[in-house]
Amino acid sequence: MSLTNETIRQKVEEKFGESVRAFTEESFGLLTFEVDRSKVIDLMRFLRDDETLRFNFLTTLCGVHYPDNQVEAQFAVVYHMHNWLDNVRIRFKTFLNGENPEVATATTLFLTANWMEREAFDFFGIIFTGHPDLRRILNMDEMVSHPMRKEFPMEDGGRTDKDDRYFGREPQNSNLN
Amino acid sequence: MAENIKMVEAPEGLAGEGFFATSLDKVVGLARSKSLWPLPFATSCCGIEFMATMAPHYDLARFGSERPSFSPRQADMLLVMGTIAKKMAPVLRQVYEQMAEPRWVIAVGACASSGGVFDTYSVLQGIDKVIPVDVYVPGCPPRPEQILDGIMKLQELVKNEAMSRRDSPEYKELLASYGINII
Amino acid sequence: MVSSNLDFIPILIQFVFVAVFIAGMIAVSHYVGPKRHSKNKDANFECGVKQYGNARIPFSVKYFLVAILFVLFDVEVIFLYPWAVNFRDFGMDGLWKMVMFMGLLLVGFFYIIKKGALEWE
Fold it and tell me: Which of A38, A123, C7, C89 has its CA 20 to 30 A from that of C106?
């Protein structure tokens, strides 16, 4: 008997009840749900250690910025986990406060989360409490902005010889204005 | 005797029965330009084109670049090929600074010359923001023939460079404008 | 023609000339050549990144032991080569002398094995 999305949903709801919501399967059958910020690590530990669920692999985690949401839910961290033994994937996300995006680190459970969380910090400024070495990973260390946030422009402010016409940019669609 | 043999012209000088006298600058310039050993600083696609340039079909070695070296102490020209991110810029500067004079720099490709298509927060908009560049080779990526053309232009530059240029105050000023202070 | 000692003087002159020439070249290029220094230029080359700490770390003595023991026994073999060429001329006398020589070295070899000097781990 293979592990179905209903089984996963039942077990997760049974254990976490109020803290999980919005179960959906609209992404090609991938079970997706939301979880409260404080329960993320417990959920991951439960998914990893439970004998039926056995989600032994953290595929990825990443950040998202929703500037149009209310302040309580402006940042999201999305986790993908994978059960190798039954070949089942799962996705869950938590929403974080816009002014103070903080969530507990997953490095205690999965070592790969180390660099993934550094990337989320580098690009969104999401602080992972308990992370052993939270610093920038892909951008230069002196950078002050968190580039993937919607308020920062993609273009380099210091460029001197690019003609906007060749990049299809006019005053109305340029990010720099 | 075939007619279409191309003879290289000798520099101006006094020729006689078994001897040839010319100025030292010219001889040194000739020797340097025909033996430029490259330091391939290949980061992206232009690096692949450079690999094709070094391969036998387009053969860079016949221009004197017989020994590419990855050590800056043993190379004459720094070929920067590919996108340089802002995180990589201090590394590039350090490699350039550790090269021994005389040294020249060729920026191969659009990304090294001006950032290329990557007009973003993370890409250095041209390596001439961190090191002085002698020749720019445009292209995305430039064909091996273009890279060879760039190297030939550098050879012309090298042939006509005075031996005392590296001690001159203008050179020191140029380096100082990039923050490199040679004592 | 019999060669006397005086015939080798040109070779001596050649050696002296070569030594003076090499030393002279190095000295001339040191004093006449350009000198350009800067802090970064003189730093060790570390592919452009910052250098941390010293490269000199202590390494295992087993490498040294293996090398030095090889040299010892190799020299023993070198001594065996002339004996191998003149085996018949040396006769029983020579055989006994060589066996004594090899026996002494064999004692050393047993000592090494018992002490575990050739253990790799």
Answer: C89
- Identify the band that residue B32 occupies on the pLDDT scale cut at 50, 70 and 90: very high
Cβ B84 vs Cβ B43: under 8 Å:
yes
pTM (2 decimals)? 0.79
Give me the amino acid identity at B91: V
B182 in a domain, yes or no?
no
Instruction: Centre a 10 Å sphere on the Cβ of residue B8 and count the other Cβ atoms it contains.
Output: 7
Per the CB < 8 Å rule, is B121 touching A167?
A: no
Domain of B122 in residue numbering reads as 36-160+167-175
Res A1: pLDDT: 58
Q: Residue B30 falls within a domain, yes or no? A: no
Share of chain B above pLDDT 90, in %: 72
Among B94, B101, B167, beta carbon nearest to C40: B94
Nearest residue, CB atoms, B87 vs list A139, A156, A160? A139
The ipTM estimated for the assembled molecules is 0.78
Q: Do the strands B19-21 and B14-16 form a parallel or antiparallel pair, or are they unpaired?
A: antiparallel
Using CB atoms, which residue from B90, B92, B182 is nearest to C36? Answer: B182
CATH number of the domain where residue B112 is located: 3.40.50.12280
Q: Which residues touch B80 (CB under 8 Å, ≥6 apart)?
A: B41, B92, B105, B106, B107, B108, B112, B127
Question: Measured between beta carbons, which residues in chain C are less than 8 angstroms from residue B90?
Answer: 48
Query: Per-residue pLDDT averaged across B113-125, rounded?
Result: 88
Does B119 or A64 have the greater pLDDT score?
A64
Q: Domains (ranges, CATH) in chain A?
A: 5-155 (3.30.460.80)
Contact at CB, C40 and B92, closer than 8 angstroms: no
Q: Would you call A159 and B120 a contact, using CB atoms and an 8 Å cutoff?
A: no
